[in-house]
Amino acid sequence: MTAPISSAPNFTKTATSTSVQFAAPQSIADTGLPASVIQDLALKIIYFAGEIPAHAVAEEMRLPHNNIVENVLSFLVKEEFCQITGAQGYSERAYRYTVTTKGSVKAQELLARNQYAGPAPVPLDVYNQVVRQQAIGSVAVRQDSIRNAFNDIVISDAMLRRVGPAVNSARSIFLYGPPGNGKTTIAERMSRLLGGTIYLPHAIYADGQIIRLYDQINHRALEEPQRSGTTGDLARRDQRWVLCQRPFIVVGGELTLETLDLIFDPISKTYEAPYQMKANCGMFLIDDFGRQQLRPQDLLNRWIVPLEKRYDFLTLQTGKKIEVPFDVLIVFSTNLEPRDLVDEAFLRRIRYKINVPNPSWDEYRTIFQRNCAQRHVPYDEEMFKYLVLEHYVKVKREPKSVHPRDLLDQILDIARYMQKEPRLEKELLDAAVDAYFVKF
Questions:
Q1: What is the value of pTM for the model shown?
Q2: Which of the 8 DSSP states describes residue 163?
Q3: Domains of the chain (ranges plus CATH)?
């Protein structure tokens, strides 16, 4: 079979992006799916719509009308599952379809198996192939370009020298250190280094099951993914794939073992892809690691093979396991002491460990100055020295990168209440410190 989507897609790689050209399938065979899957999908779409024109069925399925949807609709009419009720034009694309009594019975049987009635899925083997060809390992971070990704935050050159190679590894990173120093912010900037675009399918067909992958919450589409492109360039591309930025998915305390496997919806009888699968070809940040409902050791046991082998096994309701790529830059971020969280076996499998310490006083001053400028509060060096000596040195308080932002926000709130201009003065600084820090 010479189908463009069933064989290797045409890729053009650069240092920061991957361009993929998917020719629109020209026949049912080109989709890589059994004809019955497309026929059943079309019948469910018509059943839900009540009455629908042929071109709208094609748009819902993200498949070309010519040679595919028109043949599917002809089959449904021939088998008396559907009938033509009229037309709003002269072409077959304008024919309107509705289900017959026989078709209604058939549609209800299909819905009892699964209620999916959206874009046609892509075969699992094709998805796996595309992920490997869009791998984050193709991204190269270089010393002369890394500063641009971090130009809006204060970060030392020493830290950048650790971050760059860690991102290049495309493996796993452990960010640790005291709270309030920007570990999450650093991880967000790391995602900028990945850059580029990838293609994600709306859904995947695996062993007779439907797995939803693309979602508007976790993925940022760079084109309209809803019914786009019945004409023009998009019509010439397989619209079952959505052009997106490389994923950057963040989870915190809500992470459980169940969300790391296929999530079965007993009502729709379809599956939702787990976080790490949605993050393929991108970054997956586990924030506040150690504060999840699952134990760190349980996560290690779950990912011991994926972290080393770069593939994962997911389980269907039937008990069958399917293999998918694990092409994810995993970032663990924690305020807790690493040795209290995980054992040496876990840390050994994490490629890079990066400590994010408290800022130096020079860095703290720069952060304070930047935050003053952002909030239009005039910076005063003498008042800054007063803040440091009175409220840090005397009370043995350590500076945190987040303090300038929060203290200045306190000053803005207090000044507004006192009906005075926000500025660095003893009265406002003392009031901000008193309101912000807890006295032990």
A1: 0.86
A2: H
A3: 34-117 (1.10.10.10), 123-355 (3.40.50.300), 361-436 (1.10.8)
